[in-house]
Amino acid sequence: MERAFDLRKQLDREELATFLPNIDGRRIDIPASSFIDGLKDVSAFLGNPDWLIYQWGTVGPLRHGKTQHPLELRRLVELGLELRDLSRHDNFKTLLTGFANPPQFFDTMFEVRTASFFSRLETTEHMRFAPKFKVRGRDKHPEFEFHNRLGMFAVECKRPHLFVQRAAGTFHAIAVALNEALKAVSWPPDLRLELEVTAPLHELPASFAKRILDRALATGRHGCAEFEDKAARIFVVVRHLPFCINDVKFWQDVMIVDSEGTGLLNPKKTILRVVNNRLDRTFATSTGRRLKEALKQLPASHHGIIVLGDIPRRIAEEAITRRVDDKAYDRVFAFVVHDDVGFHLIYRKQRGEMVQKLLSPGIRPLVPAV
């Protein structure tokens, strides 16, 4: 929409709700009254931030340094409803402090979503945020603890931040360098360059890209050539032919179409494709380190739960599977992975009956069905 809606104002919230259930092509199947209440609550709990403006399909953006983070309208409504539900628990104000620090904003959103899930379990009796424990002589503060008929549970949340890791940064730097190198040389418009990273890069991406392009031009100017470098496998292919590199995992594939980034899998339009399937292994190792960090936050007096979010489920499950039966993780009642579908629990086979008791009879909905 061209008009900006100030979500701090009741009249704007009510007017925006008149467009439900579809707003700017996005379906928001939340009753108008809950939609308005959610926006009212998110504004109040976050301290009426000046970025709480809806226009052109997004809210914000939330700015931090040179970065800008637009937020999804539906997610903000849900956040307000979650915060209202959680506000009845002990030490709630401590949870809100995370929103005051922009670098922690999205970590705190994830913690809120996780806390809301456990709060709304019908078995949960009460909850406390940022409880203090002594673990090996040091003060530790898991995200929250909750109590039910099975006992006390301490929950630690981790978002691995895969996109800001060094390996991901290097991968995208290689793609950028190759794209710039393509522009600098007389690259034949009927050819496509495909490159799969196969080993760590021990040089600057720019020098790597220049060497690859020089050799690609020398060996494949007339189409269809394949060669290997110290850190990559390279194909020069006539553009109307299918891709040579297939079985690519999500998050590990960059394509350039006529010098513009795209998500289209169209070989005829793609001049450059860069792939790094090794990132799964790197991310799983990094995720394992985060699991180890989380373990150190959990007291021996509670059942421990470690929750991972904003990470491909396959990567999280690979890291968890290596540790779920490890003796060092004896006090971890369950691991949880959150994705777009919901929360998925991974646990030792012998704990299956207790996990079912934790989840039964179910979870209370935040809003009534439309």
Protein topology:
Elements: E1 5-6, H1 10-17, E2 22-23, E3 26-27, H2 32-45, E4 53-55, E5 58-64, E6 67-71, H3 73-86, H4 92-96, H5 105-119, E7 126-129, E8 133-135, E9 138-140, E10 144-148, E11 151-158, H6 166-184, E12 191-197, H7 205-220, E13 225-228, E14 232-238, E15 253-257, E16 260-262, E17 272-275, H8 279-295, E18 303-309, H9 313-321, E19 332-338, E20 343-346, H10 352-359
Parallel strand pairs: 11-18, 12-17, 18-19
Antiparallel strand pairs: 1-4, 2-3, 4-5, 5-6, 7-10, 8-9, 10-11, 12-14, 13-14, 15-16, 15-17, 19-20
Summarize the structure.
The chain is an alpha+beta fold and 370 residues long. The protein is built from ten helices and 20 strands. A hairpin with a 2-residue loop joins strand 15 and strand 16 (260-262).
What does this structure look like?
The chain has 370 residues and is α+β, with helices and mostly antiparallel strands. Among the domains are: 1-87, no CATH class; 165-277, no CATH class. It contains ten helices and 20 strands. The chain has a six-stranded mixed beta sheet, sandwiched between helices. Strands 13-14-12-17-15-16 form a six-stranded mixed beta sheet, with helices on one face. Strands 1-4-5-6 form a four-stranded antiparallel beta sheet. A hairpin with a 2-residue loop joins strand 2 (22-23) and strand 3 (26-27). Helix 8 crosses helix 9 (313-321). The longest helix is centred in the middle third of the chain and has 19 residues, at 166-184. The protein is globular and about 70 Å long. The two termini are 24 Å apart. The mean pLDDT is 89.
